[in-house]
Amino acid sequence: MWITAAGRVGSLAYRCFTCEFGLSGRNLVEANSLGIGRLPAAFLTPGSASFMDFLSDHQPDLLPGNRQLPPMQGVVEAPHGTTIVAVTFPGGVVLAGDRRATMGNVIAQRDIEKVFPADEYSAVGIAGTAGLAVEMVKLFQLELEHFEKVEGAQLSLEGKANRLSTMIRSNLGMAMQGLAVVPLFAGFDVDRDRGRIFSYDVTGGRSEEHNFAATGSGSVFARGAMKKLYRRDLSEEEATTLVVQALYDAADDDSATGGPDVARRIYPIVTVITDDGFRRLTDDESSEIARSVLARRLEQPDGPRAALL
Amino acid sequence: MSTPFYVSPQQAMADRAEYARKGIARGRSLVVLQYADGIVFVGENPSRALHKFSEIYDRIGFAAAGKYNEYENLRIGGVRYADLRGYTYDRDDVTARGLANVYAQTLGTIFSSAGEKPYEVELVVAEVGETPDGDQIYRLPHDGSIVDEHGSVAVGGNAEQISSYLDQRHQDGMSLAEALKLAVQALSRDTNGTQREIPAERLEVAVLDRTRPQSRKFKRIVGGQLGRLLETDGASTEAESAEEPDEK
């Protein structure tokens, strides 16, 4: 109807009006079909097994990468997580993190948790802006679980690592403003029957690390410690001790990394992934390791000595 | 020369219901039973890849009889609904009641809209609680109604006969092996009352096990574990119902 009306000379304003009216009318109908309670068509459309793909079709505003940032000057002050370390051993991989979050020169949180299970056979540890990182991990866990439920099979470890890469890349805009998220991903590869570690940079670049890896502000010191202490034939117990030693050395030289807090009973989070799946050491187990490391450091503050030649 | 003929709404609905019921009756039946530690799903399914039972969320399982492509679509819709809800709010805010409602609205709208073919499916949505009192089982027929079930429920071709058989014999607090045995007995009765044998390879079995330490309680029971459960006699089954190593 309105096309014929628009055909007349001088009815331009009228056409624009109907055009807008038509659009808002359609939105109303869509809102109503949600109101009835029926699953919207997007839910019943066969397609991708990815939850993120579904979100970007159905509710793109919920995806972290789609947020528009207001223009601003300088760096945003927000809590940052610090050091994460990972070590492989025959039969699995250990992923651990300290408990400190800092905001500038202030300790924002003493007991933050930065290592999370991603699914049954993998875990992710996060350094960088804590708020964004925790959200990223939540979405990553859901992405893996969603795929598993829809497809009836797990993603390969490489597939999981690539998925995380995509998520970091979508955060690039934030990273440019100082809100970077840099995780460390570790998992047990059931196809290859060994533990594997993947590290990332802010642009989502992914690289597989062999033997050991670290990320975050204390990573330089942690990597130095692991370089001297790592052996290929570590047992699970030795590997968990090694990561606590490395975190101790990181806390020793980096002010943003927290050491074991004996007074408050806050100890590093240590997780182990083997072919039995993901397991987080209990508070008792990790305090046991931290206390024995601490006891030896009272005699030898710089930790165990490696051979000179 | 054609005369436009009048079909009463009652007749139109009855025809659609008949169509959907016939479609559902072509498939094999499946049963969902409460047992001491959770809820067990049992069905006859020769396919290893096309499942009748599936995980929707931490404590929620899904079972469907009827046309595969239609219930598979609904299943994926349910997974998307649950995951989106859990992501927007919290994992605890995803409930079987909410999901059953959404399914009922979806099935009901499709059933009563003249432009769409009614879905030939019957669904069961079950949620395992902290205790047996907290268990919820909802049956969703093709027309969008919801039936709140307790103890046992059967859907599919021979559902009425199977559910009356189960109602007479199902008890609260059965062990997993007992419940599984009862389910297999019920499924292997033919319409004329004769008993036939269903081999373990043709059974699809899954549980929502409240004793599982993980937050995701759904687990398929396959291979050796299923064989062991079917062999044990009802009396000595306490140890069997405990958590067994996952066989993936």
What's a concise summary of this model?
The complex is a heterodimer of chains A (309) and B (248). Chain A has 309 residues and is α+β, with helices and mostly antiparallel strands.
List the helices and strands and how they pair.
The complex is a heterodimer of chains A (309) and B (248).
Chain A: H1 2-7, H2 12-35, H3 41-44, H4 51-58, E1 80-81, E2 84-89, E3 92-97, E4 101-103, E5 106-109, E6 115-119, E7 122-129, H5 130-151, H6 157-169, H7 172-176, E8 181-189, E9 194-200, E10 206-209, E11 212-215, H8 219-229, H9 236-253, E12 269-274, E13 277-280, H10 283-299
Antiparallel strand pairs in A: 1-4, 1-7, 2-3, 2-11, 3-12, 4-5, 6-7, 7-8, 8-9, 9-10, 12-13
Helix pairs in contact in A: 5-6, 8-9
Chain B: H1 9-26, E1 30-35, E2 38-44, E3 53-57, E4 60-66, H2 68-88, H3 96-112, E5 121-127, E6 136-140, E7 147-149, E8 152-155, H4 159-169, H5 176-187, E9 203-209, E10 218-221, H6 223-231
Pfam family, one (chain B): Proteasome
Function (chain B): Component of the proteasome core, a large protease complex with broad specificity involved in protein degradation.
Region (Disordered) (chain B): 229-248
Written description of the protein model:
The complex is a heterodimer of chains A (309) and B (248). Chain A is of the alpha+beta class and 309 residues long. Chain A is built from ten helices and 13 strands. In chain A, the strands form two sheets. In chain A, strands 1, 4, 5, 6, 7, 8, 9 and 10 form an eight-stranded antiparallel β-sheet that branches. In chain A, strand 12 and strand 13 form a beta hairpin. The longest helix of chain A is centred in the N-terminal third of the chain and has 24 residues, at 12-35. The radius of gyration of chain A is 25 Å and the shape is globular. Chain B is an alpha+beta fold and 248 residues long. Chain B has one domain: 4-Layer Sandwich (Glutamine Phosphoribosylpyrophosphate, subunit 1, domain 1), CATH 3.60.20. Helix content of chain B is 35%, strand content 22%. Chain B contains six helices and ten strands, in the order αββββααββββααββα. Chain B has helices at 9-26, 68-88, 96-112, 159-169, 176-187, 223-231; strands at 30-35, 38-44, 53-57, 60-66, 121-127, 136-140, 147-149, 152-155, 203-209, 218-221. In chain B, a hairpin with an 8-residue loop joins strand 5 and strand 6 (136-140). The longest helix of chain B has 21 residues, at 68-88. Chain B is globular and about 65 Å long. The relative contact order of chain B is 0.18. Classes of the chains: A alpha+beta (309), B alpha+beta (248). The A-B interface holds A 36-39, 43-44, 46, 51, 54-55, 58-59, 62, 120, 138-139, 142, 145-146, 149-150, 152 and B 49, 51, 54-56, 73-74, 76-77, 79-81, 83-84, 86-88, 101-103, 105-106, 109, 214, 216.
